[in-house]
Write a structure and sequence with these properties.
Blueprint (H helix, E strand, L loop, with lengths): L11 E5 L5 H11 L6 H6 L10 E5 L7 E13 L2 E13 L8 H15 L4 E4 L13 E2 L3 E2 L3 E2 L14 E6 L2 H17 L18 H8 L13 E7 L2 E15 L2 E13 L2 H11 L7 E3 L3 E2 L4 H4 L15 E4 L2 H7 L6 E8 L8 E7 L5 E6 L8 E4 H8 L5 H6 L3 E3 L9 H9 L12
Parallel strand pairs: 4-5, 12-13, 16-19
Antiparallel strand pairs: 1-2, 2-3, 3-4, 5-15, 6-15, 7-14, 8-13, 9-10, 10-11, 11-12, 16-17, 17-18, 19-20
């Protein structure tokens, strides 16, 4: 494989990876991310990697890999009102003996160069360390919601919820794979039931390798919990929602203390969601239900009578990087009419730096052209990092400007407020976020 001209420090060399390198990858991964699980047990699980997108670094005189990164080919990554090909950056790690030598910088530069060569206008990731990726142009684009909901927590009534039936089964891909895939995709495409209003960032597991790992239920995947279960809400025999979960149980002097840890909680509408949560919060021998990576505007935030009692937290979810600014801006929809000129800086990908005129009608096709600032002066200036933060519609350009990260340029005789109009247009009716960590 030919690499773009991305230099490594002296004594290091690039290396392509294949499935035959699985043990080497596992050994490096456990150096970068310590694990108490044996290498044999880790290797017994399906690998999620797309191997022709996995690149390692070797060092002279060192046995094994010293660094690696990979990406997932998300051909249908949801952006506001549309989908764009996106490189899901993942498995980024450096052996502790080889840190602080520029290997991460070289790997990110190689990843961005290869992403651009493939024609993918975006890269997205989950950050193991939140302080790292901003300096490479990734913007904090979405958050998610974590809760610890007490058993029996009061829920508001929703008309039609009582018509649903609920069944609980041991989860398996053979029995539930198609159902889960269909409902998950629908939840991302029309989370409110309004056509065209999708949930940005609601990425699906597009490859067979990702699906295989998701459904793998070996003991090493359970973290002391039981095998994976699934709770399905149906209306007239038609599945309308699901939640996957695992329970754990401890016997204390006061009696049983149980915990429910969920995977995705997905529902077609509020009635199905109310049926799911009503059943989930009424499981025997449990004290608490902890859902994982809910959208920050998930309907449960409206259904819980006392949200405060569930101790809500909102850690960072997706980070987004525009690799082709023009294509990325033109590829999404906007929530209001917009005609704004943006001056974008990008030190890692200088070809992105320039002035862009963005024009779009609300929820319609956008047009983007590069313009000469002498004749079309920029109204807003920002770095590609801030553009990435605002791109999925979850972070406000106005708030970024208030923090001093977006500059507003006054024009003589200007009647409209470019920051207000652009901030409104870049927003989106539904909060962005992914339901699983890649």
């Amino acid at each position: 494989m030919a690499f773009p001209q991305i230099a490594l420090p002296a004594g290091y060399r690039w290396r392509t990876l294949t499935s035959d390198d699985r043990r080497l990858v596992t050994e490096l991964d456990t150096w970068a991310f310590p694990s108490g699980t044996s290498h044999d047990d880790l290797d017994a699980a399906p690998s999620p990697l797309t191997w022709d997108r996995a690149i390692a670094v070797e060092a002279e005189g060192f046995d094994g890999l010293v660094a690696m990164h990979a990406s997932y080919p998300f051909e249908h990554f949801p952006v506001p009102g549309a989908e764009l090909p996106t490189a899901g950056l993942t498995w980024v790690g450096v052996h502790p003996q080889h840190r602080r030598r520029g290997l991460l910088t070289a790997m990110i530069d190689l990843h961005l160069a290869r992403t651009a060569e493939r024609g993918e206008p975006l890269s997205a990731l989950f950050a193991a360390e939140a302080a790292i990726y901003g300096r490479f142009g990734y913007g904090h684009a979405a958050d998610d919601l974590r809760l610890d909901v007490p058993r029996g927590a009061a829920l508001r009534d929703v008309p039609g919820a009582e018509r649903h039936t609920v069944r609980v089964e041991v989860a398996s891909r053979e029995r539930h794979g198609d159902l889960v895939d269909r409902l998950h995709r629908a939840a991302g495409a029309t989370p409110t039931g309004i056509p065209g209003i999708n949930r940005p960032g609601w990425v699906t597991r597009e490859t067979e390798a990702l699906q295989a790992l998701h459904w793998d239920d070996a003991p090493v995947q359970r973290s002391g919990h039981e095998s994976r279960r699934i709770l399905i809400a149906e209306l007239d025999g038609e599945p309308r929602g699901y939640v996957t979960f695992r329970r754990s149980l401890k016997w204390e002097p006061t009696g049983a203390r149980g915990h429910v840890s969920t995977g995705e909680v997905v529902a077609a509408d509020g009635a199905a969601a109310r049926a799911l949560w009503g059943a989930l919060l009424d499981l025997d021998l449990t004290n608490e239900v902890s859902p994982f990576t809910l959208p920050v505007d998930d309907v449960v935030t409206q259904l819980l009578v006392n949200l405060r009692a569930a101790a809500p937290r909102t850690p960072d979810n997706l980070w987004v990087r525009l690799v082709d600014v023009g294509a990325a801006l033109a590829g999404r929809r906007y929530a209001a009419d917009v005609d704004v000129t943006l001056a974008v800086t990008d030190t890692r990908l200088p070809a992105n730096s320039g002035v862009y005129r963005l024009q779009a009608e609300a929820f319609g096709q956008a047009s983007v052209e590069r313009v000469d600032p002498e004749f079309d002066a920029p109204e807003l200036s920002l770095d590609v990092r801030e553009l990435g933060a605002a791109y999925l519609g979850g972070k406000s350009l106005a708030v970024l400007a208030a923090a001093g990260l977006v500059t507003v340029h006054d024009r003589p005789g200007q009647r409209r407020n470019p920051l207000a109009s652009a901030s409104t247009a870049f927003g989106w009716p539904v909060a962005p976020g992914a339901s699983w960590v890649f």
